[in-house]
Amino acid sequence: MGASTLPVQPSAPAARAPGMRPAERLCHATGLLLILSGLVHLVVFAVEGGPWDGPVSWRKPVTFRLSFGVTLIAVTWVTSYVRVGPRLRAVLLVVFAVDRVVEVGGITLQAWRRVPSHLNMEMPFDTAVSMTLAVGGGVLVVLLTVFAIASFRHRPSGPAGMALAVRSGFAVLLVALACGAAMIARGVVLTRTGHQAAAYHSTPPLKPLHGVSLHAVLVLPVLAWLLSRTSWSESARRRIVAMAAGCHAAAVIGAGAWAGLTY
Predict the structure, then answer these.
(1) Residue 3 DSSP symbol
(2) Nearest-angstrom CA–CA distance, 38 and 40
(3) CA distances from 126 to 135, 194, 196, 236 (A)
(4) Cα gap 189→207, rounded to integer Å
(5) Residues 6+ apart with CB under 8 A from 70
(6) 53-82 pLDDT, tens per residue?
(7) What is the maximum alpha-carbon separation in the chain?
């Protein structure tokens, strides 16, 4: 048998089919629509006015749609470097997209009804929406934890520094997820014990930590990708990514310290 007939095992990057798979196209399109709809709600806020902060405001449909859209696109792209079976990855991404749409739909519905979305258990319908959002958050934690574990079990592929960027991004993202879970858990306890107003005002101390941690999974891999377009050496690119990851970790620690003092 000639050498040319021997099967060749492609590397992880080469194993990816050219172009985006259907699940990836769905997630990118959904993320883009979420971003555009967030901008539309920003226009609604500019026209109608009203408070930007507080449990009832246009801030939530704007910021959640923008953030969820960016996160969905980022996770879809970043997980292409994570060694996960293509079928499993496709299923996880589709569930992730559906979960984000359902959650932001509930948030937007309540904004148009002029009632709080999270921690609102005043009426049966509001309770159903609030619990749906809580369940959606739980699904989010499970999905992203699976990707995070996969990124640490097997070294992610990609250019120099990408493995560190992906792993650091997912590690910091887990902090954001834990922060979000803590906000919901404390709010639910306060609500169940008859302290509805206190529940609405219990989340601000953790919001900076949540925000700082949420998008590291996009910022660090994008930096590694941009550096791969330069002529700098691989060691230099790895050092830059490491420094960026260290700076992001310092910001998370600072936000966490502030949350600990004010929570």
Answers:
(1) G
(2) 5
(3) 14, 16, 13, 53
(4) 18
(5) 31, 35, 215, 218
(6) 878 889 999 999 999 999 999 999 999 999
(7) 78
Chain-centroid distance, C-alpha 90:
17
Does residue 45 contact residue 37 with C-beta atoms inside 8 Å?
A: no
Length of the chain: 263
R_g over Cα of the chain? 21
CA terminus-to-terminus distance, the chain: 70
Q: pTM (2 decimals)?
A: 0.82
Q: Which residue has the tokens 């226009």?
A: 43
Q: DSSP for 123-185?
A: SHHHHHHHHHHHHHHHHHHHHHHHHHHHHHHS---SSTTHHHHHHHHHHHHHHHHHHHHHHHH
Fill in the DSSP letter of residue 229: T
Structure tokens given for 243: 């420094």
CA angle 177, 179, 185 (to 5 degrees): 100
CA 192 – CA 226 distance, rounded (Å) = 48
Tokens 């060691």 found at: 235
Tens digit of each residue's pLDDT (9 = 90 or more) over 178-228 = 888 888 888 878 877 877 777 777 777 788 888 888 889 999 999 999 999
